[in-house]
Records
---
Amino acid sequence: MMMKCTEATQMLSERLDRKLSTKEKLSLGMHTAMCSPCRQFGDQMKELREITKVYKDLNNVETKE
Amino acid sequence: MESALSKNEGEFSSVGTFSDPIYMQELRNQMIKFARLQVRDEGLAEDAVQEAMLAAYQHIDRFTGKAAFKTWVFSILKNKLIDLLRKEKRHTAASQLEEGENLNGDALMDVLFAKNGHWNKSERPQKWDDPDHGVENNHFWRVFDACLNELPERYSRLFMMREFLEMETPEICANEEVTVSHLNVTLYRARLRLRECLEDCWYQSEAKQ
């Protein structure tokens, strides 16, 4: 059954925190291939992480030894 | 202009660094700024910084010089903040926090998605053209800062632990006594809100100009 956008967007968020299984990657890939808004959402999640990293640098945050 | 912090890093012996008031003041200011991002309580943030600096001074013999002095002190602060967040958690009525914010999260989901689980037409993500969030763009960072501060306390706390303190899922779940699925849903909703806020307050308003 086709994945819903609510499920796809949650998986696109979780992708930042854990490795998706092969099955998850496959169903997410099938969904985003046909769903342009979810593709945009996936790009924006990556962009958000990059923005957060720059924001951290601007605030002189150093947390790694 | 070069700050005392960047200029002195590596030029001083670690013990000597403590006797340089300009360096220490700049370092303290940066530590407080970072701590405030995590605990959002000025008093608690200052306590954590004070404790971290005291611990650094007391254990200066453990500083091997492999990392920059500032990085070493920040790693002590990070551990102090994690301890603080853990203690604070014990004193927080989690159920009170959950109730309001779950409603908040569900309300957002109802706005973004239709009953069939697909995007509402008016809420579909638009392409973020030319993000222009370079270091020189102060306006963008003010907007991002405001969006971050708009996050509900519970979302913000877990988002900060994940993205700023770079804690891994098992560590956050253990500290906060939440399940992995609860953490995943909370991070998802925090990112949804941040994305929505940035789209409304920056990307779409930029596109209209």
---
Amino acid sequence: MPVVVNLDVMLARRKVRSKELAQAVGITESNLSLLKSGRVKGVRFSTLAAICCYLDCAPGDILDYVRSEDDLRHDA
Amino acid sequence: MIEARLTLGQSRACKAIAIAFAAAAAFRLAIICAAALAPQLMAVTIACDRHGCAAQAAPLNLLPDDVRALAETGPDPERVLQDHLGSRGVRQVLLAGQMVIDVPVIGLLLSVAWGIWALGRTEGRALDRSLPWLRRGALFALIAVMAVPLGQALQTTQLAQAFDPDAAFALRVNLGRWALNLLLALVALAVSWALAAGLRAEQDLAEIV
């Protein structure tokens, strides 16, 4: 599932530290680190909304998609 | 991650229950040993009245009702049965029957004992450790439901041959009780699957931030 998380890019653009964002959003730093590295199975809309609100951006600024035919396989 | 958050009292109760199951397993093991040493010990019953309790050996009780009725028409049925039990081959078949009955039951009791003991431990993910043992216990219960009538039939057929040399292997099953035991074993297995599925779903959810 080639969904790419560009959160570290947005953090750099906004000059916001991970610790500060984690506190603002209400998740742990370790979970934010997992999210930044893309090693999570999903992200709640509420978490995404809180991140977008704090960083003043849209979900598309944080998440990107690289096309893969494997994603059309339902058992993937 | 989910943890079995038992209170201290519940944790202690789990350990006490686990010990009771382990003791029951040890008792069943003693029954196998008794069957190996002296088959007539399997027929010992303990009768209690106001004067106290006393053990009585009644080997004829090991026979099915119809064979016992037949035996009691002949002279000194207990002596005939004792002589029959004196044969090494008969004792080996009786021991095999007892093992068919008791080995799955011991497996069930020990698995449940270990599973409940693991559940009673307060540190770490107790349910993760406990669930595989409870699932093994449910599988042993299913095997026991199948094996117990077979083992009993093996024993009663062997004993019946003391009075009727032509006695053939006959499976005597109380169908209502057997079906209930089977359903209970299946329910235990299904519950263990449901808990495992719940744990997997919880672990998936834990990876959603």
